Input
Amino acid sequence: MEKFEKLKSTITPLNIENIDTDQIIPARFLKAVSRDGFGENLFRDWRYRSDGNLNNDFILNSNPKNSKILLAGRNFGCGSSREHAAWAIHDYGFRVVISSFFADIFKNNALNNGLLVFELDENLIQKIFKKISNESNIEFEIDLNEQKFYSLDGSIDEKFQINDYNKTCLLKGYDNVDYLLSIKEKILKFENETGR
Amino acid sequence: MGKTLFDKVWEEHVVDSIPNGPSILYIDKHLIHEVTSPQAFDGINSRKINVFRPDRTIATADHNVPTENQHLPIKEELSRKQVEKLTANCKEHNIKLYGLGHKYQGIVHVIGPELGLTQPGMTIVCGDSHTSTHGAFGSIAFGIGTSEVEMVLSTQCILQNKPKTMRIEINGELNSGVYSKDIILYIISKISASGGTGYFVEYAGSAIEKLSMESRMTICNMSIEMGARGGMIAPDEITYKYLKDKEFAPRGIELDKKIKYWNKLRSDADANYDKVLKFDAEDIQPMITYGTNPGMGIKIDEEIPSSAINSSKHSFEKSLRYMGINSGDKLKNKKIDYVFIGSCTNSRIEDLRTAADIIKGKTKSPHVNAWVIPGSKSVERAAINEGLDKVFVDAGFDFRQPGCSACLAMNEDKIPKGKYCLSTSNRNFEGRQGPGSRTFLASPATAALSAISGHVSDVRDYL
Ligand code: SF4
Output
């Protein structure tokens, strides 16, 4: 897994609640058998009109900056367990998603793919939406080690929460499967003791 | 202090815990399908390891398969490749596969229970969020992502943070015309599509205890639609009776021994939950969703509201615009174009019987396309044995072969843009049933009656 320490970027705002995994990546694009290329179809049905033309009003089209932070309304990633949603966001170029609230499976999937997700208070999130609607070029920095998120103009400076295990995995680029394989003896012992 | 059912099953499966981090949870049964497994197999293949416990892994092809002419090669190239990949992976790693043409093939959450693979007290995972269905047996069952599928394939374990627990009680007598689908749509409408996030739910109360296993599965199935990781119901005589004689369930003395253990899988009277909600069964009416998340539900004769909990004005209005409806309108009598009876929520034999009862001797409305997609080959066989297929076909319905079908519209079963589908599935998201499709979720009874009348209908007017 790719390491994550620090990142500086503008924000892509998506002020909609309950963005579900079918919006992030519609089911008809789940037929690939590898992990790559899903970014092309990220938010497919919002990015393209039904006649196949680009929807210039949608933020990814109207504001195509090299932003690495996606800021979304509450309950982001609800719906299916498809990890393709996390792959699509990462493949498109985002490295961080911020919301006031994430669906559980999406959160796990993101963290398992080096995509940092964390929650901030809804009021603060609305404040940031407002701020970037006035000045979309404002840059933000995320420091995972310090668990800090701040704007370079100094007006926003917050601490965010992440559990120690996930933090270490991201900082060092550790992989969960490697970890589980390293404790195989314990698993065998568990199977033995519980008669499995 | 006492323990909840969830705590009891969880604790029996914890191999180890990482301080300030997740637990390592042992998984008893791992169900896999073609869409979320190929990348996980690639992972273990590139690590040059084998599947750790192939005997605890069961595969089927369901999400992406056609529902007609299943004996022929799959026409669509990408779908065919995905299914072929699953077949090759299962072969290479000695995993039992109930693929197309196999007598046990079907939607993964339909076949687990009906084959007796799903049993009380187990931990069950699958790369599909509706794995929560299996919780109806008093097991901890939840959906996982592909990285987690890889963890389970390689070590039969998963890293998981322990969720909070919620108890939802439904007490009293259900009104006539109210089915388990209505119960769960009612609960979600009360607490919203995110009201259960972070929790594992236990459903209890006198109204739940009386439900059949298939009805319980419908409720646990949609736990994810309130954001909960899963839902469970304590096993009881109804559970044991259901499991008796199922292909892979224990039998004879073995079953008696198991039942002794399963009887302990109850929440203690003094168990502590993080949250408790109680509802009166009498308050539940036939339900229907009007919006683009399952929390946007109303009683079938109610007006469409002007707001919903946990939804901003902007998102709410966007949703109504997408659906082409207005606050203050009623859905009752609204013309529909499609009816879909299927999906892991409502494609079991009980659902088909309910629908057939209403349809028998009638004909569908000429402007409605009506599809019945049985959840599995076993359901299909049972329906044919009971003559239900004839009821459907005589009424002008399409009775097709098993698969997920229009629930997620990965195969060719898609609802066209702008069309209204009254669906027994579980998600009404934008485009879920095909780009631009509009979904109303309801019970199989409501779906069947509405297919006949051609518009959204209230089963109580029929009864
Ligand atoms: S029927 Fe629908 S919800 Fe159920 S497993 Fe298939 S796609 Fe998922």
Notes: Chain B touches chain A through 70 residues (CB under 8 Å). Residues 339 and 370 of chain B are 5 Å apart (CA to CA).
